[in-house]
Amino acid sequence: MARIGVFICHCGENISSTVDVVNVADEIAKIPGVVHSVDYKYMCSDPGQTLIIEAIKEHKLTGVIVGACSPRMHEGTFRKALEVAGLNPYMCEMANLREHCSWVHEKSQKTTNKAYDLVKMLVEKVKHNESLHSIKVPVTKTALVIGGGVAGIQASLDIANAGHNVFLIEREPSIGGHMSQLSETFPTLDCSQCILTPRMVEIAQHPNITLYTYSEVEKVEGFIGNFKVTIRKKAKSLDEKACTGCGLCITKCPNKKIPNEFEQGLGNRTAIYVPFPQAVPNKPVIDKINCTYYTKGKCKICEKVCPTKAIRFDQEDELVELQIGAIVLATGFDIKKTDFFPEYGYGKYKDIIDGLQFERLASASGPTAGAIRRPSDGKEPKTIVFLACAGSRDSAKGIPYCSKICCMYTAKHAMLYQHKVHDGKAYIFYMDIRAAGKNYDEFTRRAIEEDGANYIRGRVSRIYERNGKLIVVGADTLMGAVPVEIEADMVVLATAAISSKGSEDLAQKLHVSYDQYHFFAEAHPKLKPVETNTAGIMLAGACQSPKDIPESVSAASGAASKVIGLFSNSELSRDPLIAYVNKSAPPIFSTCVGCFICESVCPYNAIGHEEIKDRDGVIIKTIAYINPSLCQGCGTCVAICRTKSIDIHGYSNKQVYTEVISLLNDI
Amino acid sequence: MNKLQTLAGELLDNKEVSLIIGYQKGANNKTRAAFISTSEDSKNLIFDDTCKQNLAVYLSKKEINKFGKIAIVCQQTTLKSIIVLTSEYQLSENIFAIILDKENNWQCLKTVEEISNFSESNSQTNSTSLELIEKMTLEERWNYWQDQFSKCFKCYACRAACPLCYCDRCTVENNQPQWISIPSSKVGNLEWHIMRAMHLAGRCINCNACAEACPQGIPLNILTQKLTNDIFNDFKYTPGKSSTQTNVLSTFDVKDKENFIK
Amino acid sequence: MENFEPKIVAFVCNWCTYAGADLTGTSRIKYSANVKIIRFPCTGRIDFMLLLKAFANGADGIMVSGCHPNDCHYTSGNFHARRRWIVFRTLLDFLGIDTKRIVFSWVSAAEGVKWAEMVNNTVSEIIKLGPYKEYQEIAKEYLQNNEEDGNE
């Protein structure tokens, strides 16, 4: 016989001001099966929980209903109280009398009646609750970090330093990401590579980190603590063990005119190449798309000159399977290119460049050895116009968000230009100056006061060429929207930051949510910024939203701490509210007829085939089997099963049926 | 017909099959299903205009399964039933389908591929009664079906005749909870027929065995025809096309219409 | 009909609409008390027979609500639910059952305002349509004889 205890909470006055909680408790006591029904000011408080614990012991309760706030707030609290009292925690249900009732309705008998109905519905439901126990799942203490930029590097080092193994995979031939392309970083004007490369070397040398560059994620299966990830190691055409990184092949390669991705197209590279001199690993790859041997069957000079015979033209992509416990996504961002702007020439003007291209010009190891030069004729520009918010904060362009880093790096670019070209003039068209970080505002003030950058508040409607100069047509809104026309030698567009290429595909492989801009979705915008809704997968850096370096590093350490927390348990406890196929004694074995419509509906591939055999090994019938480690408890299989052979704990057929009936009837 | 009996006899003699399901004359000169396991008995096999029953309904019965390899005399609809049953993992052995081709010769199709190739596609069924009902108002439709369902006395012949109703325990036989009210009643009949139509959605191949079997003459086939037509219009899905097809309700298209969802 | 208080059941998913309704509460937005929520893990869990049971037990209207497409916590539950509803609505309409009494919606965890609007709109719609007499008539015998389920 059911012995249900009902506890109606006043929640101070939050519930009791609109719902007659005393009346509800009194009326509920009349329902058959309810042996104890009380009200109290604050059920979630210590004395409130003690009330429940004492009642369970005194009245030998078999089920507990708490009529209070949303179960999304305190279901866990009350489940723990039941455990303390010695009752199975899953024999507790919460009626949402606050968010769904007292806070949204006026004080009236109707509201009290609704509260009564909601409690009654759950009283009837809990009569069908079963004792359930957490499912224990083993955890593989190996992490996978996808993306080798500064965020991926930080996360890998943090996890590895905590004593766990890390696989870091990066799709470019070297780690480093966009930070390795920068010349100096704000607000300190540190040399970017100088602070990054020691970290990159640490990765390469760390005993707990295995680095796979030129590799991508092929497939992800499994679930938190038990992922099986297949990595595709793209063929570098190189035996990495034999290669010493001497670089002779690169100097001898005759195919030298391939646009260099690292230099953002401002310089060229050879077909066998290392992306930049400080690359980690410092071993070349062959670009199969442009290499003369791969396209025309001739050359092979690199193979001939290599002193250790490390070149392998017959090398194929390799698929590697890894057992992983947690994944950190750190795939970074990209920026819009200049061809995105019809009003600025669709990218056809060579001297209109984007922020990353300017970084390469300013960089001492860049295509111009750090001298600012026009890409068209190599001359030094005497006037540069910088456009902030090129594409960002513009609904018409489909990018309503702020790209966060551009105000700062535009100020930085103006300063770097001024330091290199003393008689140069820098103009910056801006909408706002967003310099909110530590020492950020002081930095932008420096650009204006010490380095003479001219800030013009207004937007640029058009840029066109006239007599070898770029005519920038804008407005100065602080002077009453006076039109401004500047003859520039070069224009730098601070283009919008966007999600990195291939984000959508990767998110779908990992079952991670993403927004309309293909930035990965965090589990909660305030309280869970480094986790996703997919258990076991964390987020670090600009792949979640545009960020600068300190924020990316912080997020990476945050993600790493989540992983380390996960790994600090030898087992993971899973919620037991999952589905199962019914089983019974022979000769029936199960009412499942093996049509497997459930198999095709499960988003987690948790359903497979189970053969029921007799003693001689002959198959009697094949039925569906749900893997309790994989099932996430959505219940779609339960609804679609025609024989009703699948049921789900916590939302079983009997439970939901009873809820509908009792909600609508006055029994 | 003689050729049919010869073909059947040969299949049994060669031990290619252990059972042939076909049609024969039964009591009161009515046509009934024949279960032939010796070549001698194959002389009972007939095939004429009275042979309408969809024999595929016997393929999922346990008593039949224990025979091993089976041949079955088919109409076009029977072929489609075999394909759907195969896609739902219900047929363990290859079934031989014996069917008349367009030149009136008996063909024996021995693999599921041959059966799929031989099967003619008809994605939509047009019937005047269906169109008439579609043109009625909401109230008229309610009254029409309430009238029809009032004749139903829950004999479940429709379920027994349908080849796709092979569930060991039908939902209506559940009482924990009691989804469908069992006795013949206005609400019980309505719930039963809604449930039947939903469980056949995207699976029914319109053999009309249900309507033929109904002793009260309720036009049950119109219900399933309506769903088959609309499923084709909405999802471009036709059941019984391939043995590896997935059910229409266990797949989805991101672009499925949602003009009714706010 | 005067003083007609419709009985409306809402079948909602835990991760989006239930959370959205919580947000409506946290924002103290007021709406009609005629709608009572039953919580499901996902819209994919909602069996069509539950909707029939709701009508048979006196519901004048039904709301079904879940996550927007592509946002399902379980990736695809709402897609399967959507297909099921498309087919179910066709069938119900063909049988003369008023599909205007079943309101489907996507309400996310951030759409507290939308949930209040959905409830208020649904309640006024159902008031206009009146009590679901036709279904309640045929279910009367069932309701009277309802000795089963719920009570041990």
Please describe what this structure looks like.
The complex is a heterotrimer of chains A (667), B (262) and C (152). Chain A is an alpha/beta fold and 667 residues long. Chain A folds into five domains: 4-126, Rossmann fold (3-Layer(aba) Sandwich), CATH 3.40.50; 135-234 and 317-332 and 500-574, FAD/NAD(P)-binding domain, CATH 3.50.50; 235-314, no CATH class; 337-498, FAD/NAD(P)-binding domain; 579-648, 2-Layer Sandwich (Alpha-Beta Plaits). Chain A has a five-stranded parallel sheet with strand order 10-7-6-18-29. In chain A, helix 2 (46-59) packs across helix 3 and helix 12 packs parallel to helix 13. The two termini of chain A are 18 Å apart. Chain B is α/β, with parallel strands linked by helices and 262 residues long. In chain B, helix 3 crosses helix 4 and helix 8 (186-200) crosses helix 10 (220-235). The longest helix of chain B has 16 residues, at 220-235. By secondary structure, chain C is of the alpha/beta class. In chain C, strands 2-1-3-4 form a four-stranded parallel sheet. The model of chain C is unreliable at 147-152 (pLDDT under 50). Chain C has one domain: Rossmann fold, CATH 3.40.50. The interface between A and C is large, with 56 and 52 residues.
Low-confidence stretches of chain A: none
The oligomerization state is heterotrimer
The CATH architecture of chain C would be: 3-Layer(aba) Sandwich
Strand content of chain C: 15-25%
- In order across it, which strands form the biggest sheet of chain A? 10-7-6-18-29
Number of strands of chain C: 4
Total number of helices of chain C: 5
Mean pLDDT of chain C: 90
How much of the residues of chain A is beta strand, in percent? 15-25%
CATH level 1 name of chain C: Alpha Beta
Identify the biggest protein-protein contact and residues per side: A-C, 56 and 52 residues
Tell me the name of the CATH homologous superfamily of the largest domain in chain A. Answer: FAD/NAD(P)-binding domain
Q: Portion of residues in helices of chain C?
A: 40-55%
Chain-averaged pLDDT of chain A: 94
Largest sheet descriptor of chain C: 4 strands, parallel
**Apparent shape of chain C:** globular
Question: How many individual domains of chain A?
Answer: 5
